[in-house]
Every structure is written in structure tokens, then in C-alpha cells.
Amino acid sequence: EIVLTQSPGTLSLSPGERATLSCRASQSVSSTYLAWYQQKPGQAPRLLIYDAFNRATGIPDRFSGSRSGTDFTLTISGVEPEDFAVYYCQQYDSSPLWTFGQGTKVEIK
Amino acid sequence: EVQLVESGGGLVQPGRSLRLSCTGSGFVFGDHSVSWVRQAPGKGLEWVGFIKSRPYGGTPDYAASVKGRLTISRDDSTSTAYLQVNSLKTEDTAVYYCARHTEKRFDSWGQGTLVTVSS
User: Fold this and answer.
1) Is residue A6 scored above 90 in pLDDT?
2) Rounded to an integer, what distance in angstroms lies between the CA atom of residue B47 and that of residue B35?
3) Which of A45, A47, A92 sits opposite B45 (nearest CB)?
4) Cystine design at A101: which of A4, A84, A108, B114 (Cβ 3.0–4.6 Å)?
5) In this structure, is the dihedral angle defined by the CA atoms of residues B98, B102, B106 and B110, taken in order, positive or negative?
6) Is A11 within 8 Å of A105 (Cβ atoms)?
7) Is the pLDDT score of A64 beyond 70?
8) B36 at the A interface (CB within 8 A)?
9) How far apart are CA A43 and CA B56, in angstroms?
10) Alpha-carbon gap, residue A101 to A81, rounded angstroms
């Protein structure tokens, strides 16, 4: 079973700062099957990035995804007030089919 | 507009069963697989199972942690997917979301329905 470990647990930033969120897989993951989701309090998750690099429909270009080996990164180039939320990475594998990381909370400093 | 709406949550006693519904609109429901994801209070997201679209067999699969207690089905004529949870435990208390698949990603989610298991 592939385990996704996200870091940091909490990221405290001021609006306008750059956010770098990490998601490390315990073994090789296909880029095709790595996604990032944003969840605000009381709301459902929203797809941000899929296939490690591609922005979902309507997602601003300040959000970007990258990969280095088993390390995946979500970057927010300049955090806006509406970006304060919890972010989850997700991968698809053979079994269990989909797993999520434990989440990174981006909070206002 | 693509929309998914869950229903059927509520307070249920341990050991009982519950069936949740997920109704889609704004797209061809039958063309998409549907997953169920749950979130315990204050916790992260846990994928519990999915059902393939009819062109891919329409069969379900489940996470090992819940296999044997969950049954996922679909009725494309009413654009609805179902999640039945049997032998409910207190640790099944969570918001249950359904999500539409496009390829392997979950590109649209319902607002969730809260299931509380308590005596």
C-alpha cells in the first residue's frame, strides 16, 4: 500500500507569500495518478491539480504542481485570502485504489 | 452545471444499516464512475469505495478497511448512486461525500451528508 505523507502539517503565511506544500509517496507513483484538492471549512473538497501538473477547470494559475521522484509539490505563488484552507494530495494505485495524504492546513499568520 | 447531491444521512444506532444516495445532474451520469469518500469529524479524507461506469462493467470495489460492510450500487436511469453501510460502528461517524470521476481524478463532489452512529 502506498502511503502519502504531507508536510508541513500547518503552514502559517501572510497574504501574498509563497506556499510550498509537499506530498511524499512511500513508493513510486505514476504522475498520471496524483491529484491535489482544496477543502475549506464546511465545504466539500475541490479538485485543484490532476496528473501532478495540470490545473483543473477554473483554477487560477497561481496554483501549480510539480514532481521530483516520489516527492510531489503544490505551490501557490502568492497566497490570496481565499486560499486559506486544507490541502490534500491523492494517488491512485492498485490496492487500495485511492489514498489521500493527511492534509496540510494553510492558515493566516 | 454539474451537481451531485447526497442524502440519507442522520443519526443511527450501532449495529443498524443505512443507505445513502447520490444524485447527479448536469451531465450524463452513466458515463462516469462514482466514488464515496468519508471524513470523520476533524479528520482527513478516506476513500471507501467506488462503482465503475456501465461501459466499464458497472462493478464496485471497496477499501479493505470497510470491505464486507459496504455495498455500492447505481441506477443510471435515475442518475443515482447508492452506498449501503451495514453493522454500523461509532467509528463510521463521518460526513460522506460522493464524487464523480473523470479518468482517475475526482472532478466534482457533492456537499456531503452527515452520518452519526450513536446509541
Assistant:
1) yes
2) 8
3) A45
4) A4
5) negative
6) yes
7) yes
8) no
9) 31
10) 24
Inter-chain touch B44–A33, beta carbons under 8 Å? no
Here the cell at position A60 is 487560477
Bridge-based pairing state of the strands B70-75 and B80-85? antiparallel
User: Residue B91: CB partners within 8 Å, gap ≥ 6?
Assistant: B40, B117
pLDDT at B43 over 90: yes
Indicate the residue type of A27: Q
Longest dimension (CA), chain B: 42
If residue A74 lies in a helix (H) or strand (E), which one and from where to where?
strand A71-76
pLDDT, tens digit, 9 for 90 and up, residues B107-116:
999 999 999 9
CB distance A35–B110 less than 8 Å? Answer: no
Residue A47 contacts residue A37 (beta carbons within 8 Å): yes
Separation of alpha carbons B103 and A32, rounded Å = 10
Which of A96, A101, A102 is nearest residue B64 as measured by Cβ atoms?
A96
